[in-house]
Amino acid sequence: MVSSTGSHTWELKLTVDHQYEGVENEFPLQVTGDLHVGGLMLKLVEKIKIAQDWSDYAFWWEQKKCWLLKTHWTLDKYGVQADAKLIFTTQHKMLRLRLPNMKTVRLKVSFSSMVFRAVSDICKMLNIRRSEELSLLKQSEGTLKKKKKKDKNSKEPATEDILNLCNSPVNSGLPANPGLYSKTMTPLYDPVSGSPASSTITWFSDGSSNEQNCSILALSHPTCSPEVLAEMYQPRTLADKAKLNAGWLDSSRSLMEQGVQEEDQLLLRFKYYTFFDLNPKYDAVRINQIYEQARWAIMLEEIDCTEEEMLIFAALQAYHVSKLSLSSETQDSICEPEVDEVEAALSNLEVTLEGGSKSNILEDITDIPKLADNLKLVRPKKLALKAIKTYWFVFRDTSISYFKNKESAQGEPVEKLNLKGCEVVPDVNVAAKKFGIKLLIPVADGMNEVYLRCDNEDQYARWMAACVLASKGRTMADSSYQPEVQKILSFLQMKNWTMCSQAASEPENIDMKPECFVSPRYTKKFKSKQLTARILEAHQNVSQMSLVEAKLRFIQAWQSLPEFGLSYYIVRFKGSKKDDVLGVSYNRLIRIDMTTGDPITTWRFSNMKQWNVNWEIRQVAIEFDQNVSIAFTCLSADCKIIHEYIGGYIFLSTRSKDHNETLDEELFHKLTGGQE
Q1: Could you say which DSSP state residue 369 is in?
Q2: Ranges for the PH domain (predicted)?
Q3: CATH code: domain of residue 446
Q4: Could you say which of 36, 71, 90 is where a domain stops?
Q5: CATH number of the domain that 50 lies in?
Q6: Distance (Å, whole) CA 244 – CA 637
Q7: For residue range 314-352, what is the model confidence (pLDDT) as tens digits?
Q8: Which one, of 346, 270, 330, lies nearest residue 302 by Cα?
């Protein structure tokens, strides 16, 4: 091997990745170490002698697994020597993406940009705002086992199931419609039906199939046979759930650097569960894909829910399907402006991050409201029955104090509970008139468990909303308190159905296949007729909703589940002799006992001072206020994934409606990249 620098010439063999048959693809060139990459490209193209547009081509260094994109850098600066295997190949290649609605799209994506940028481009093609909430996921081997048994011979899905978007504006180098991200843009979707407005169709490439493309992404087709469902991966344990999050790609590296090849299939998923500024006028595709991700998570039992909740989800889906039969009529009808505005306001659902929006200053300096009520306190006793006793409870600021009775409320309380940083878990069964709130309050040696039992829905909604806000360090003076109360009441109302004798005789519901709307566990538990009757009972409370509203209610109900937004990883904490599960959420980390599933400790991001990774031993170390520090290694995935998750959620908490919608990419990489 001859390797020199400066003016000494040496031979470098280059491979050209072109599509021409019978044309040479290996080209030896005489080069010097001070030749810059742009000059090398020029020399190579002159030698190839094929007239074509080479502007999308760049050098890929096979051994080092990196792109040579800085064309002004010299070969010496990159460290390229005579034994380097450089491939001159296109930066944009075809990729198959499985969307949350389980549809596969095929489109041209940058294999040389960082994944964060590539996802942004993909979302522009698919008409999904807020691309920072999504990322790309490689399906891990453990979650594919079930499929492989059945699909030994068919590696790819059937061609007709793949939606080709290879002629979209982003692919052809044209700028995406600037109106897509503009605050003054005209509505792209009917906020009631979710069908595309006529102007939206032109955003896709020309041709009559575009309306169909829009519809496939913005409208739902939820029927799925129990047989198909049975073939899909269903996690049974926390360890199984951890497998679902093992394959997230590194947002700070390119697809090619992470071993992704042309025509590979990846999953496009909402990675961060903070759906900012959802608006039915512009977000029909985004709302539908969030709805679909929620629907599949519930059907495949990736998230736990009660029987009562499962029937609500089934009713919303079943209703959704019956509405779909009218979708062709809905698309042709034009909505009156007044209804349009009202429905958009009603349906507009938003989950703001803690710290994402500040409440009105005047509101904050007024007297902070308080709650005072007789509630039952339930304390679990070891080796004994639960002790239930009624006390007079007072909720003030972010603390609950309770007294023997109302008269003694001026004196010292029996106990004062500070709810900042606690876990709040609903324990509700509307049919049985059970309205419980489970509080897991952090103490020095773990979590203190307290149950509160309310008398009715109204009392429960007020106390539950106060607990949820207090856990985030907010009081009832916060502007989000009343909306939180209404959200809880609305969910309870959906659960509080009454049997209606006419429901079962509605002709449009006769053909309902209930197995398509519930997880396999409930298909085994109930007969088909029983399920149909119970779904139709639940359906009475959702029958007046518009199509988009039904999806938003589904998303809202999903967000109300205790496990919502938790991504699980198997970790080993420093100093521990056994493995634990770490739950990563938008505002906290939870250490969970792997065997029992019980939370051990919670750490909130708002108390975090710094976090870093020791790359040599792959250990994540985090420092919190009050000299609390933790360190752990990740066993179910690369530690970079958890590091990026934490940084990503902190990045998303900086978003504001006041800011321009362009993202601070540099800040994202600073918070998530780490120093490897």
Answers
A1: P
A2: 376-472
A3: 2.30.29.30
A4: 90
A5: 3.10.20.90
A6: 10
A7: 888 877 765 654 553 444 333 333 444 434 444 444 443
A8: 270
The domain of 401 spans 370-476
> What contacts 351, CB < 8 A, 6 or more positions away?
274, 275, 276, 559
Q: Which pTM value belongs to this model?
A: 0.81
What is the distance between the alpha carbons of residues 457 and 434, in angstroms, rounded to a whole number?
A: 9
The alpha helices in 327-376, defined as continuous H runs, are 327-332, 337-347, 361-365
pLDDT per residue as tens digits for the range 179-227: 344 444 456 666 666 665 544 443 443 444 444 565 678 877 656 777 7
Question: Where does the pLDDT of residue 381 fall: very low under 50, low under 70, confident under 90, or very high at 90 and above?
Answer: low
Strand order from edge to edge, sheet including 134-137: 134-137, 265-270, 92-98, 104-110, 162-164
Q: Which whole-number Å values give the CA distances from 113 to 69, 119, 251, 415, 647, in the listed order? A: 10, 10, 10, 56, 20
pLDDT at position 140 is 76
Is position 641 within any domain?
A: yes
- Burial class of residue 132, CB neighbours in 10 A (0-12, 13-18, 19+): buried
* Whole-number Cα distances in Å, 567 to 157, 272, 589: 28, 9, 10
Place of tokens 């039969």: 325
> Residue written as tokens 């190949």?
89
Burial 140-154 (b: 16+ CB within 10 A, else e): bebbeeeeeeeeeee
